Amino acid sequence: MRTVMKNLVFAFCCILFLSNAAPAAELSLSVAASLKEAINELTAEYGKKKPGITFLKNYGASGALAKQIEQGAPADLFISANREWVDYLQNRKLTDEASRCAFAYNSLVFAGTTKQPVAGMKDLAKLRKIAIGSPGSVPAGEYAMESFKAAGIDKALDGKLVMAKDVREAMKYAELGEVDGAFVYRTDALLLGKQARILFAVPEGLHDRVIYPMALTTTGTGKKEAVEFLRFLQSAEARKVLEKYGFAVK
Asked: Which terms in the Gene Ontology molecular function aspect does this entry carry (predicted)?
């Protein structure tokens, strides 16, 4: 009888402990595809400090992510590869304007496997196929199109452009040799295999500066855990991780 009572008391204590334990928090992140490796490392590091948090990460083209959020997809934090798609959500009152800030900066390069001498924008007309992210939703593609027009070569590239769903897909086309080269971010090009290489950097004067703004969504702004994670992403520790992957932080 004494043993039975001990077991009952133990079981009751376990139930009481579990009922009082803080539930694990889930944070949903919608992040530009080019930040994948950096964000994976940052969430892993943060998870060591806050083991009760689970991150649900959605990587993709900034425009596609913004449309998903607009349609009700769960997201507590949005990090875009340009201002346009944060503006898009802000205009629809789906992000917290007060939380908006710059996360990182990047640069645009042309990378590929072509054996033809390609040293600058004027050399692109002699190539067969060039991959870019679809400009309607992929900021890297928008920056590329902006650069073509500024360099006066947009007409010369008619019929040569292969549209990719995001910058990582454009990079894959280049790496596999399915196109002569692709316009990707410098940080993406640093991940290329030995066969592909950076052929030239796009002069920054040809396009707006590549900026990654971030903001809490209206859902995220009500979560203490999301606010704290946003603060971590602005820390010196986070900046070191970004620099490790080739991003600029100012």
From this structure: metal ion binding; molybdate ion binding
